[in-house]
Amino acid sequence: MNWQKSDLHTFTDARKQTRSFVSRVIFAILIVFILMGVIIGRFYTLQIEQFDDFITQSDENRIQVRPVAPNRGLIFDADNTILALNAPSFTLSIIPERVKDNDALIAQLQQYIELKPHHIERFKRNLKLPRKPYQSTPLKLHLSEQEIAILAVNEYRFTGVEVEATLKREYPDGKYFVHALGYVGRINLRELNGFTQEQVEQYGGTNSIGKTGLERSYEAQLLGEPGSEHIETNARGRVLKVLTRVAPAPGKDLRLFLDSHLQRVAQDALKGRRGAVVAIDIETGGVQAIVSNPSYDPNLFVTGISYKNYNALRDSWEKPLFNRTIQAQYPAGSTLKPMLGLVGLSEGIVTKKTTVYDPGFFQVPGDERLYREWKKGGHGSGVNLRKAIVESCDIYFYDLAFKAGAKKMHDVGEFFGLGLKTGLDIPSERSGIWPSPAWKKQRKGRPWFTGDSINMSIGQGYVLVTPLQLAVMTATMANKGELIQPRLVSHIGDVPTVKKILNTIELPDKYWEHVHEAMEGVLHDAYSGTAWSVGRKAKYRIAGKTGTAQVVGIAQDGEYESEKLSERNRDHALFVGFAPADDPKIAVAVILENGESSGKAAAVAKTVMDARLLPSVDASTDRNSNSNINNASAITANSSSEKVLNTPHRHAHL
Asked: Contact 361/646 with Cβ under 8 angstroms?
């Protein structure tokens, strides 16, 4: 066969193409094997070498650890009536880590439920607070059932949104107990910045903290210990299931000495007037009633009070936020006279038989100044200690103070707790002022004068006391010198609190009995006792002392004219007492701001004593008590005029 040149060329090209094809296939196969090796190597790295890291990151996206808030301890009165509880509530919250645009999400939510500007402002403010990753931030509290249903139906539309079931603090009868219990409120940035790391952990999942009163004093006991739970979530952040859970430890309950019935009776007896009532159990020192009026609703503060409501409370002339029982400081007036009578007896300055002549004024030898008696014309001759207490004779105590001097009065007053904090277990107590020459020199830079002692003897001048101090002083008087620290809490959990005796004043029984008997006369000596209008209708014997405290000074030649004074410049009315006189159970102190008539204060005290000592009688509706309150000023006009001339006056410091 003859081969042509073109045929040979074609054969040669076919062989080249075959070799080229085979080489390309081999190269492709090598590339495939190399790529497969890379993939297999990467799979090995991911699945073997870095498995633990990636499974952890996966779980962090799918499994979260969130704190579980403990149930806050409850608060009960002496009869186990609940005063502070935890009520169920539902909160709309957002998990910021699962949301790209908070503003867009909020705008979307507003199409379904109402969100007010303060809800949004508070949410943005809370976003700035330190928080754990994936911890929800509240947007709207206390959702209604309708809002919960709307959000449940449209749940798929909102990524990073949760409806959380929580417990919020609630005070069923808040206005009656707020100054004792206080309230809880949202944790603010200042408080959070002051937390230690341990406290940050303790408040995990909790948004509230005790702000005032017992809620603040016993925060550590009421709070409890937080728990935790591991939860599995989907891509939208919805909780699918709880994997593990460590239960929180609930806070300890508090049981109080407070008697809720007595507390209501005391506040209702004030009939809306500005003032304070404190009632103390003689044996234990337990505070059974502590009322500051006017009051307010603590529930407004639990989840954040509005600016409008807060400003109304803060700017009110009535000062409802101010706890008058431990923070207001008033001149003590004549309520100190029984205690000062003990100074005279114990120091031998006077005896039962010592008398003075009361012409209506007192003059220090060598001094032209006249110190006036509240009763025009005075009490005449033969005024002994008993009569001086029963009729509240100023001249007797001017003379006693002149002879005793400031130091002796100051030392005994301190034993009764004057000028010192009582140690009651709620915060913000003030100490009052029980002056001495050293105190005046330090505080005023001036020496002590005889006139200072004279003013001190009737609870004026520099003297300032709180209603609680007066109640403690009166309980100490009833206890014949045993000064017991007052307490509100009787049990923390099941553990009782400990009674603490601060002082014991050692005096012969005859001195105590003489002063007690004189204090009985204040309420039971017909026509002469300054609170006889109240005591004559009592079903038991009461020992007490009336008092008035000037708000404005009176010129030496002037007279007190109530109708010419504004209501705020009229005298304060005071009363202290204990009952039954022969076997004391309760001590009560009452202050009515600008109340003028100390008989009105005595009537309030009797109403409280009736509720404590006559349980079968509803003291709030006792006809006798009501008539006492209404008529006391007319019958005890003598006690409502206790004045002093030229006293360097001090207002009740609010």
From this structure: no
pTM for the whole structure: 0.81
Q: How many Cα atoms occupy the beta-carbon half-sphere of 100 within 13 Å?
A: 2
Q: Which of 251, 166, 163, 250 is nearest to 207 (CA)?
A: 166
Residue 320 CA to residue 329 CA, distance in Å, equals 16
Question: What pLDDT shows up at residue 297?
Answer: 94
Residues 497 and 298 sit within 8 Å (Cβ to Cβ): no
Exposed, middle or buried by CB within 10 Å (0-12, 13-18, 19+), for 495? exposed
Q: Which two tokens stand for residue 468?
A: 């609680």
More confident residue, 235 or 303: 303
The model's confidence at residue 21, banded by pLDDT at 50, 70 and 90, is: confident
Residues found in the chain: 654
For residues 639-652, b (16+ Cβ closer than 10 Å) or e, as one string? bbbbbbbbbebbbb
Classify burial at 377, counting beta carbons within 10 Å of its beta carbon; exposed 0-12, middle 13-18, buried 19 or more: exposed
CA angle 350, 353, 355 (to 5 degrees): 75
Q: Is 571 within 8 Å of 641 (Cβ atoms)?
A: no
What digits encode the pLDDT tens for the residues 136-154?
Answer: 788 888 788 898 898 888 8
Cis? peptide before 580, omega within 30° of 0: yes
Query: How big, in percent rounded to 5, are the helix, strand and coil portions of the chain?
Result: 40, 20, 40
Q: Selecting from 3.40.50.300, 3.40.1180.10, 3.40.190.150, 3.40.710.10, what CATH number does the domain 260-307+322-641 have?
A: 3.40.710.10
Reported as a pLDDT band with limits 50, 70 and 90, residue 456 is very high
- In the predicted structure, residue 607 carries a pLDDT above the cut 50: yes
Same CATH topology for 67-256 and 260-307+322-641: the answer is no
* Banded model confidence at residue 237, pLDDT cuts 50, 70, 90: low
585 pLDDT band (50/70/90 cuts)?
very high
Report d(CA 37, CA 553) in Å as an integer: 102
| More confident call, 315 vs 89 | 315
Task: For residue 477, give both structure tokens.
Answer: 């008087």
What pLDDT score does 40 carry? 85
Residue 62: its H or E element: helix 51-62
Instruction: Grade residue 23 by pLDDT with cuts at 50, 70 and 90.
Output: confident
Residue 353 exposed, middle or buried by CB count within 10 Å (0-12, 13-18, 19+): exposed
Indicate if 597 belongs to the active site: no
The dihedral of CA 490, 491, 496, 498: what is its sign?
negative
> What percent of the chain has pLDDT above 70?
85
Burial 69-107 (b: 16+ CB within 10 A, else e): bbebbbbbbbeeeebbebeebbbbbbbbebbeebeebbe
Which of 1-12 are b and which e, b meaning 16 or more Cβ less than 10 Å from the residue's Cβ? eeeeeeeeeeee
How far is Cα 504 from Cα 388, in angstroms, rounded to an integer? 26
Tokens of 3: 């081969």
Fold classification of 67-256 is: Penicillin-binding protein 2a (Domain 2) (3.90.1310)
Q: Which of 260, 334, 453, 641 is catalytic?
A: 334
What average pLDDT does this structure show over 209-237?
84
pLDDT at 496 over 90: yes
pLDDT in tens, 43-68: 777 777 766 665 555 555 567 777 77
Task: Show me where the domains of the chain are located.
Answer: 67-256, 260-307+322-641
Are 571 and 550 within 8 A, CB to CB?
yes
Q: Which residues pair with 161 in a beta bridge?
A: 94
Closest CA to 587 of 460, 482, 457, 434: 482
